[in-house]
Write a structure and sequence with these properties.
- α4 links the parallel β1 and β2.
- Helix content is 41%, strand content 20%.
- It contains 8 helices and 7 strands, in the order αααβαβαββαβααββ.
- The chain is an alpha/beta fold.
- The chain starts with a helix and ends with a strand.
- A 7-stranded mixed β-sheet has the order 3-2-1-4-5-7-6, with helices on both faces.
- The longest helix is centred in the first third of the chain and has 25 residues.
- It has one domain: Vaccinia Virus protein VP39 (Rossmann fold, 3-Layer(aba) Sandwich), CATH 3.40.50.150.
- It binds S-adenosylmethionine (SAM).
- The site of S-adenosylmethionine has 19 residues, from α2.
Length: 237
């Protein structure tokens, strides 16, 4: 019989990682790209300001000061700072500590009592079951590792009747030259992150597979073809 205490004390370099350590390792890998570009991301202007403002107004109309809200993949917190005053409490999270550090600087300069930031991976549980009235994911769902798992976790975090509100890029709808040439080249040289290639119908189906009711599917872009679909879905009451 192996002596369990020996196994616990003799650290072997070949010892396999626990699932929790594996999750931490994969979150650190995902964060690397975003940590590297965080300062530039914060400085870059929003490409379609009119479309962004339409999305903000739409989301503000869906939120209320009686709601606890979770944002996944919040980046440097620009949107969270705008939305938090419409909520009771907004926890905005991102896998990148670099992004969250900048978000916290912005919050310190412009305090909003309802808002807090945390580093968290949307591919792993961020919240307890049924803790939130709304889960927000802007420009995130095409970046997660496992869309079904991330949606399942978002659904679990919601209270019955709670809303999932997402706006995200549909890479399968982009020009094939971007999909099959530019994006893979950029990824190979570390200039673009890993990205899932779904279209709006596939995303809508993935959300519906989690048992959520689709409330609305919209496009808010004001410049040419809009590849980013805005979807509101409700967890059944
Ligand atoms: C394109 S930026 C969008 C940021 C912000 N939501 C916005 O709309 O400006 C994508 C963000 O998602 C974060 N991200 C990528 N993968 C993630 C994951 N698995 N879990 C949480 N955040 C993630 C990145 O660190 C980055 O800040």
């Amino acid at each position: 019989m192996p002596n369990p205490s020996l196994h616990e004390t003799c650290a072997s370099p070949l010892r396999s990682l626990s699932p929790a350590d594996e999750l931490k390792g994969s979150a650190a890998r995902k964060a690397r790209f975003w940590d590297r570009i965080a300062v530039k991301y914060a400085a870059d202007p929003i490409a379609d300001m009119a479309g962004y403002e339409t999305t903000l107004r739409r989301v503000q109309a869906l939120l209320s000061s009686e709601q606890d809200v979770l944002e996944l993949g919040c980046g440097t917190g620009t949107t969270a700072l705008r939305l938090a005053p419409c909520t009771r409490r907004l926890l905005a999270t991102d896998v990148s500590a670099g992004m969250i550090a900048i978000a916290r600087e912005k919050l310190a300069a412009e305090p909003v009592p309802q808002l807090s930031f945390a580093v968290a991976d949307a591919d792993a549980p961020v919240a307890g079951q049924g803790e939130y009235d709304a889960v927000l994911a802007f420009n995130l769902l095409h970046l997660v590792t496992d869309l079904d798992r991330a949606l399942e976790l978002a659904m679990q975090a919601l209270r019955p009747g709670g809303l999932l509100i997402s706006k995200t890029a549909c890479i399968a709808e982009m020009n094939p030259l971007i999909r099959y040439v530019a994006l893979p080249v950029m990824q190979a040289i570390g200039k673009a992150p890993h990205a899932l290639r779904f279209d709006a119908d596939a995303l809508r189906s993935a959300i519906a597979r989690q048992g959520m009711d689709i409330v609305s599917v919209e496009r808010h872009g004001t410049r040419g073809k809009d590849f980013r679909v805005f979807i509101v879905a409700r967890k059944p009451a």
